[in-house]
Every structure is written in structure tokens, then in C-alpha cells.
């Protein structure tokens, strides 16, 4: 069966294309016929994992399609310029899809944990350990192991562990730019250089943290709400140039970015219990929706926030 959806002279530019949502989308769009440029920033040691993933993209390319991988800082002026210079010969006026999937944020809390909260949890563990005739540290380790093994119901007994440092203005500003307003920087540069196709799609990634306050997530939450606001403005002001802009709100997904959040194991457990389908969102769920919206039939979707979570946001645990 022919799975080609796009002409190989059209391009997808994926920012954050070496893991998670970005990698899954790069794979999906390449298999559907687009040429793909994946921008990522990874240490040399990580390439042993990443290169086989990139090779699978090369192996899936349709006739005449191309794949470019650029390991550089997509948040610096130099990185943006280098990307555009690498793309221009093949992709000038042909960037059909721009996906912003940059996960570079600070996860420090904004306030210290009250002593009473920590004391209450310690007292609970002491009581359980006493009742079970076990050592408290052993019980704590076992509860954490059970949570990692998928026993979601113990999540309430395993509180997140935070550092003592609180977020400051520099952390906040850097996160808001990295995961939020840098989307506009990229759109403006691509447009100024004449890189976008006449019918182009811009996608940004948000999460339920856009309106739910998770401890340690304040900077990322601020970035996500800024991203959504910027996307709406792009949808209106760049529409005359054929550019559509939408935000994808994925459900809780087991990605490197999620696992960096304190308490991520409990977040995953709660999501599995809450989701109507009793599973986490996977990156491929998001890639499927982006592929659908990137086709001609998705042209009238603009300025929207699209939830890709199996109904997680409307369900209770």
C-alpha cells in the first residue's frame, strides 16, 4: 500500500528531534514522504542511542527525500543561522512543517517545602513500618520500587524529592524563552529568509501544566502558557502568508523530559489510573495527529489547542 502523503521536495524542520515527540514525528513524516531536518543538542555519548534512530529514518525515506541531522544549539542565534544555511540549498520556500519540541527548562520549586509536610510523611512511614515490623528506609525503598514496577496505587506514599534551591529570575526567563517564545524567533527567521512553503504548519508542544500547578513546574508552566499565546498570534498575523499555527497538548508521556521532573513516577501512575484507556500517551500518538494536521485536509485548523491524551484531561482518577 502506498503510504506517501507528501512530495519529497517539501520539508519538515523538527526542533528537538532526537527523542520523544520530536523523534516520533520525524519518523512519521519521513515515512509519509517529507524530507526531514532534525535539530538536536546531545552529547557525544548519547549518539550511540540516537544514531540508530536516525538511521531508521534514512531507511524509511521515500524516493528523492532527504534527511539532515544537526547537532547544535537551536536556542542561539548562531544555531538558528547554521540551521538555515544548511537547509537553504534544498528547502528554500519548501518548509511545510515546523515543530517546536524543545525541552530545556528549569524544574526548581518556587517555595520551600514546609517542615510539617515532610514530618507528616515521615510519621506515616514510621507507623506503617512499625505495623509491618519493617525498617522505615527499607519500606520507603520498597514502595519506590513498587511504583517503578507499575503498582500505581502506592504513588501517594512516594512523595517527590526536590532540591533546596529555589528558582530565580534568570532560571525563569531562560525557561520561558527556551520552551516558549523561541517558537516565534524561529517563525520570524524562517519567514524572513523565505523558507516557508506557501501552505505551512507550525506546531508547539504544551502540557496539562499550562493550567495545573505542579510543584517544581512553575517555570515550564509559564513557558507553556507563553508558547500558547505566541502560537495564537502566529496563527492570526502569519495567516496571510499561508502559515497555520497550532498547539498540541499531549497527555502524560514517558519521555526523557518527563522523567527529569521530580515526582514523575507518581505523575505517570496517576495518569494511568485516570486515563479512560488506562495507559500513558506515547510519542507516536502525537506524531499521528501532527501528520494528519500537516496534510492538505488539515488546512482549516488554525490557532487551536488540540489535546492528544485519550481523554485524560476530562477524566478523574
Strands, helices and their partners?
Layout: E1 11-15, H1 20-31, E2 35-40, H2 47-60, E3 67-71, H3 77-91, E4 95-100, H4 115-132, H5 136-148, H6 169-192, E5 196-206, H7 218-237, E6 243-250, H8 256-259, H9 264-274, H10 283-294, E7 305-308
Parallel strand pairs: 1-2, 1-4, 2-3, 4-5, 5-6, 6-7
Helix pairs in contact: 1-2, 1-10, 6-7
Q: Summary?
A:
This protein is α/β, with parallel strands linked by helices. It has helices at 20-31, 47-60, 77-91, 115-132, 136-148, 169-192, 218-237, 256-259, 264-274, 283-294, and strands spanning 11-15, 35-40, 67-71, 95-100, 196-206, 243-250, 305-308.
Please characterize this protein's 3D structure.
The protein is built from ten helices and seven strands. The chain has 317 residues and is α/β, with parallel strands linked by helices. β2 (35-40), α2 and β3 (67-71) form a beta-alpha-beta unit. α1 packs parallel to α2 (47-60), α1 (20-31) packs across α10 (283-294) and α6 packs parallel to α7. The longest helix has 24 residues, at 169-192.
Using the alpha-carbon principal axes, give the shape: elongated
- Strand order in space, largest sheet: 3-2-1-4-5-6-7
Main sheet makeup:
7 strands, parallel
Number of domains: 2
The helix/strand order is: EHEHEHEHHHEHEHHHE
**Low-pLDDT segments:** none
Distance between the termini: 41 Å
Helix fraction by DSSP (H/I, runs of at least 4): 40-55%
Q: Tally of extended strands?
A: 7
CATH class assignment of the largest domain? Alpha Beta
Reported CATH architecture of the largest domain: 3-Layer(aba) Sandwich
Amino acid at each position: 500500500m502506498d503510504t506517501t502523503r507528501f512530495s519529497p521536495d517539501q520539508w519538515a524542520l523538527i526542533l528537538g528531534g532526537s527523542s520523544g515527540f520530536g523523534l516520533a514525528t520525524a519518523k512519521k513524516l519521513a515515512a509519509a514522504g517529507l524530507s526531514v531536518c532534525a535539530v538536536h543538542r546531545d552529547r557525544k555519548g548519547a549518539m550511540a542511542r540516537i544514531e540508530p534512530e536516525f538511521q531508521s529514518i534514512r531507511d524509511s525515506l521515500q524516493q528523492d527525500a532527504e534527511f539532515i541531522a544537526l547537532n547544535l544549539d537551536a536556542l542561539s542565534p548562531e544555531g538558528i543561522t547554521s540551521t538555515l544555511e544548511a537547509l537553504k540549498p534544498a528547502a528554500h520556500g519548501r518548509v511545510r512543517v515546523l515543530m517546536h519540541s524543545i525541552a530545556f527548562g528549569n524544574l526548581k520549586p518556587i517555595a520551600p517545602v514546609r517542615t510539617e509536610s515532610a514530618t507528616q510523611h515521615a510519621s506515616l512511614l514510621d507507623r506503617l513500618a512499625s505495623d509491618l515490623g519493617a525498617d522505615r528506609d527499607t519500606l520507603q525503598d520498597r514502595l519506590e520500587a513498587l511504583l517503578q514496577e507499575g503498582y500505581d496505587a502506592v504513588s501517594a506514599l512516594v512523595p517527590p524529592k526536590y532540591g533546596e534551591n529555589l528558582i530565580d529570575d534568570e532560571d525563569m526567563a531562560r525557561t520561558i524563552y527556551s520552551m516558549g517564545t523561541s517558537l516565534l524567533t524561529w517563525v520570524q527567521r524562517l519567514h524572513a529568509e523565505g523558507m516557508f512553503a506557501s501552505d505551512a504548519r507550525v506546531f508547539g508542544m504544551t502540557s496539562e501544566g499550562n493550567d495545573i500547578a505542579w510543584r517544581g513546574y512553575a517555570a515550564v508552566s509559564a513557558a507553556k502558557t507563553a508558547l500558547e499565546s505566541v502560537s495564537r498570534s502566529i496563527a492570526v498575523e502569519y495567516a496571510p502568508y499561508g502559515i497555520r499555527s497550532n498547539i498540541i497538548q499531549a497527555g502524560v508521556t514517558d519521555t526523557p523530559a518527563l522523567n527529569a521532573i521530580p515526582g514523575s513516577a507518581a505523575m505517570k501512575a496517576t495518569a494511568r489510573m485516570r486515563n479512560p484507556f488506562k495507559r500513558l500517551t506515547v510519542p507516536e500518538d502525537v506524531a499521528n495527529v501532527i501528520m494528519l494536521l500537516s496534510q492538505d485536509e488539515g488546512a482549516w485548523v488554525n490557532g487551536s489547542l488540540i489535546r492528544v491524551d485519550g481523554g485524560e484531561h476530562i477524566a478523574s482518577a
